[in-house]
């Protein structure tokens, strides 16, 4: 029987949007559950394909030049294969720092583009995932003893990894180098596990959706302590919530209300008024209007939910929680028609359409799951030698897959393209460079960003990095088409 292990990992990327941008570096360290290293660390660079422009800010932050990634890295198809193999090892828990909201989304889109199941490594064969950032938030709010907690100038806590390591005397090396960040995350986990072993183990044991479901089912209509970045750091990212039912379109999502707020607003306002309050951008809300404390808790995203008894007086003070007020609101809600309220909340969170523009690269979530038939065709793609990819004719059912296969060949193995296919690929790249709809960084956006950075002031090393980036971008431009456009 395979022993459980933890795969601590981190990406550095060419941009911040997992749908539109691509990974540059991946690093990982495997440990046992006692956090002892197993095997050698993984440290990979990914060659950038020529259909996107790296963001200048990303290059300045990571220090990775596209030229270096081209020379030292591997095609994205091989990069994805290595990551998939590491994360899919039986009984692996993949985790890191802010991985659920950032790294895992890059992993899903990476695997999707390269014909792997984007989800199975998260749950199959005893696998799971976790994220240390909410664990650290919970430790600050509920069990802060034994660690130092850095503060911003406004006296709110900072949960930036580099701030936490500095405050606790942990060597971080070069921040925003993937392997350095992995070792820093692992060191913080060891420190917390040493300082608060029972607390650490409780949260680790309750990371899966099945354990969280069991918790909720064992205590229906009871309030919970919820730790999340969706509560302000000034309130220790913590509140007391009541779960008000389940989303019928997403069985992993529960409706949750922040019991610090008056719940009568849920009955007084219409579905449309609640939606406007929740989903209107902050800068467009009327002055002084507070967000309604209504959220969804996703049990497949390792939410930090604890019994209310986890709160002591000091924790309530840090989180600005008045338990008497929360209990009053809880009892009021229990006296209402919760079945009708659940139906109303279903309307509030009715599924929002994904803006995928018909682009298969953007259709991971909007395009649905691939059929068993198509999954077999995708396995055939991975098993086909590179030199035979051009002759591969597969009976796909999903309309996304023919275009995805073409882009897969063009990005990873351009030598397999015919002259006509190369012209088609160049036309596609030209359109992306000039697209007005949502896309990765355009040529105009790239030039504007460079001007903005120069206006803000950059040092000599940064100027050299940006000059190398300009050389790289010039090298991938489809000049023939750009000349024709003039």
Automatic annotation (TrEMBL):
Keywords: DNA damage, DNA repair, DNA-binding, Exonuclease, Hydrolase, Magnesium, Metal-binding, Nuclease. Its cofactor is Mg(2+). Pfam families: ExoI_C, ExoI_SH3, RNase_T. Binds 2 Mg(2+) ions per monomer. GO terms for biological process: DNA repair. The keyword Transmembrane helix does not apply. Mg(2+) 2 binds at residues 12, 181. It is an enzyme of class 3 (hydrolase). Residues 356-477 form the ExoI C-terminal domain. Transmembrane segments: none annotated. This is Exodeoxyribonuclease I.
């Amino acid at each position: 029987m395979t022993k459980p292990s933890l795969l601590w990992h981190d990406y550095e990327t060419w941009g911040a949007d997992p749908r539109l941008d691509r990974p540059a570096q991946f690093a990982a360290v495997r440990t046992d559950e006692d956090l002892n290293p197993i095997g050698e660390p993984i440290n990979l660079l990914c060659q950038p394909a020529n259909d996107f422009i790296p963001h200048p800010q990303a290059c300045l932050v990571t220090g990775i030049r596209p030229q270096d990634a081209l020379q030292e890295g591997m095609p994205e198809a091989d990069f994805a294969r290595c990551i998939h193999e590491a994360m899919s090892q039986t009984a692996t828990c993949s985790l890191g720092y802010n991985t659920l909201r950032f790294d895992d989304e890059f992993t899903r889109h990476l695997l999707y583009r390269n014909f792997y199941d984007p989800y199975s490594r998260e749950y199959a064969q005893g696998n799971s995932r976790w994220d240390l950032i909410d664990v650290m938030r919970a430790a600050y709010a509920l069990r802060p003893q034994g660690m130092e907690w850095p503060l911003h100038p406004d006296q709110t806590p900072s949960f930036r990894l580099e701030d936490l390591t500095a405050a606790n005397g942990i060597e971080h090396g070069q921040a925003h180098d993937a392997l350095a960040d992995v070792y820093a995350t692992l060191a913080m986990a060891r420190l917390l596990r040493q300082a608060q072993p029972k607390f650490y183990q409780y949260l680790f044991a309750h990371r899966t959706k099945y354990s969280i479901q069991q918790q909720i089912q064992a205590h229906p209509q009871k309030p919970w302590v919820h730790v999340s970045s969706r509560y302000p750091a000034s309130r220790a990212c913590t509140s007391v919530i009541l779960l008000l039912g389940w989303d019928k379109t997403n069985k992993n999502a529960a409706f949750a209300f922040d019991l610090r707020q008056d719940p009568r607003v849920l009955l007084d306002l219409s579905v449309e008024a609640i939606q406007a309050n929740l989903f209107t951008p902050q800068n467009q809300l009327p002055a002084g209007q507070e967000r309604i404390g209504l959220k969804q808790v996703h049990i497949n995203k390792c939410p930090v939910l604890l019994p209310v008894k986890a709160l002591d007086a000091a924790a309530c003070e840090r989180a600005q929680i008045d338990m008497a007020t929360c209990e009053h609101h809880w009892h009021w809600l229990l006296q209402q028609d919760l079945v009708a309220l659940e139906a109303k909340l279903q309307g509030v969170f009715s599924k929002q359409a994904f803006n995928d523009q018909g682009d298969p690269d953007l259709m991971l979530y909007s395009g649905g799951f691939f059929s068993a038939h198509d999954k077999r065709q995708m396995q055939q793609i991975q098993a086909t030698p590179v030199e035979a990819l051009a002759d591969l004719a597969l009976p796909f059912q999903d309309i996304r897959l023919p275009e995805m296969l073409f882009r897969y060949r063009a990005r990873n193995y351009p030598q397999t393209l015919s002259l006509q296919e190369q012209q088609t690929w160049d036309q596609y790249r030209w359109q992306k460079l000039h697209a007005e709809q949502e896309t990765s960084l355009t040529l105009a956006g790239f030039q504007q960003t460079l001007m903005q950075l120069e206006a803000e002031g950059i040092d000599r090393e940064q100027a050299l990095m940006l000059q190398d980036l300009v050389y790289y971008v010039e090298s991938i431009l489809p000049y023939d088409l750009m000349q024709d456009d003039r």
